[in-house]
Design a protein that fits this description.
Shape: globular
Number of strands: 33
Helix content: under 10%
Oligomer: single chain
Number of helices: 1
Largest sheet: 5 strands, antiparallel
Distance between the termini: 23 Å
Radius of gyration: 20 Å
Length: about 400
């Protein structure tokens, strides 16, 4: 693929396929089969336009390079089911936590750490749950696990974990920072070595001090709602999430309220923008816009927020098997995934169950292409959009 061409990776984790498309024309440039990527762990941006992801069926971490002759650059065995994926700011040292998979209760306590430069890898036991993870610092990095019930940020030295003996030994964190029990959502700001965790109280933050973390003031939501997903905006050093409010009963999902929450790390200013009712979850960051998809029985849309706070709404065609009134938005239904690159103005949105990807120009709201793939993209699939040197790897947490 030409170095100047944005690359779109589309994962159908149900069908076990990964499609490589060129943007904006949507032409298929490559395909992997027999690869069931973890939708929850998502894609992790690495330097040079590469991405890391986890094949949950084979138990492998994959490094994919859409600009190389062979799409799969590296495959390293890791513990699964993958829950969260993160790396240090250099993209060299990675950590993968395990979660529920297709089970109703947490059962795995395995954590995998690996060094892409040396090929070393180790598995250790930590604590059963669904831990989030960040890897702080390039020299002597720390692995920070965000646990729930009881909530805590658990701190380990990466070097100690990598040097663990065979047999998946149980490891004890050398430092703990308490958190509320309902943490969900992780981010880090590499420049300041800060880690962030979303809870019902707000965004808890801590800064690295040697081999420990020092707690800092909680960033309030400024709303009765809360965020469940947190990510760093590498363009302007800010945090983003969607605040979901209303009755938490999943059967009431069409009435859920949604606000875009944008917190500037430099100024401390927080901005809230109403997105409308329904299901809004992950977001994507383009060069000058932030993209959200909103699913609702009365119609779906792509919402594009500009740097000035203005919102453009683009209607999306409905999905057969979309969430309905009286049902939940999670079980046995189709959804949408959204992707963008901070180095381009293109936005990609999936149409779950139809195998379609909508490619929009964020500057105009115009749909440039709608490729139809050879697999249906059940549950919406998952995707990532990269340009070769777009700076997306400045966010070292999988999305």
């Amino acid at each position: 693929m030409p170095a100047a061409t944005p690359a779109l990776l589309v994962s159908d984790h149900v069908a076990g396929a990964v499609h490589l498309l060129t943007v904006p024309d949507g032409a298929v440039a490559g395909r992997l089969t027999g690869r069931h990527l973890s939708e929850h762990a998502g894609f992790l941006a690495l330097p040079g336009g590469r991405v890391a992801c986890v094949d949950d069926r084979r138990g492998e971490l994959l490094v994919l390079n859409p600009y190389a002759e062979e799409l799969v650059e590296r495959a390293v065995p890791v513990a699964v089911p993958a829950e969260h994926l993160a790396c240090d700011p250099s993209g060299r040292r990675l950590a993968v936590t395990t979660g529920l998979g297709k089970n109703s209760e947490p059962w795995s306590d395995l954590l995998t750490v690996l060094d892409l430069a040396t090929g070393e890898a180790a598995r250790v036991r930590t604590r059963v749950g669904e831990p989030g993870v960040t890897v702080l610092g390039e020299t002597d990095p720390l692995v920070v696990l965000r646990h729930r019930e009881p909530g805590a940020l658990a701190v380990h030295r990466f070097a100690d974990l990598l040097a663990a003996p065979p047999g998946c030994p149980l490891v004890t964190p050398h430092a703990l920072l308490p958190l509320p029990d309902d943490g969900h959502g992780d981010a880090q700001a590499p420049g300041s070595e800060q880690v962030f965790a979303a809870t019902s109280q707000g965004v808890h933050r801590a800064r690295r001090k040697g081999d420990i973390l020092a707690a800092e003031a909680v960033i309030p939501w400024g709303s009765p709602a809360r965020g469940w997903y947190l990510r760093l905006d590498t363009r302007r050093q800010a945090l983003w999430t969607t605040l979901r409010g209303g009755d938490p009963d999943p059967l009431r999902w069409p009435e859920w309220t949604n606000q875009a929450w944008h917190h500037e790390l430099g100024t401390g200013r927080t901005l809230l923008t109403d997105l409308g009712a329904g299901l809004v979850f992950r977001l994507a960051l383009a060069r000058r816009h932030t993209a959200f998809t909103r699913v609702h029985p009365d119609g779906d849309e792509l919402v594009l927020l500009g740097a000035d706070g203005a919102a453009r709404r683009c209607l999306l065609p409905g999905m057969d098997g979309a969430p309905r009134r009286g049902g939940t938005p999670w079980e046995g239904v189709q959804r949408r995934a959204v992707a963008a690159s901070p180095g381009s103005d293109w936005i990609a949105v999936t149409r779950g169950g139809h195998g379609e990807v909508h490619i929009f120009d964020a500057e105009t709201g115009h749909e440039a292409a709608r490729p139809r793939l050879s697999t249906p993209l059940h549950h919406g699939g998952h995707l990532t959009l990269r340009a070769r040197n777009d700076g997306a790897d400045g966010d070292p947490v999988g999305r």
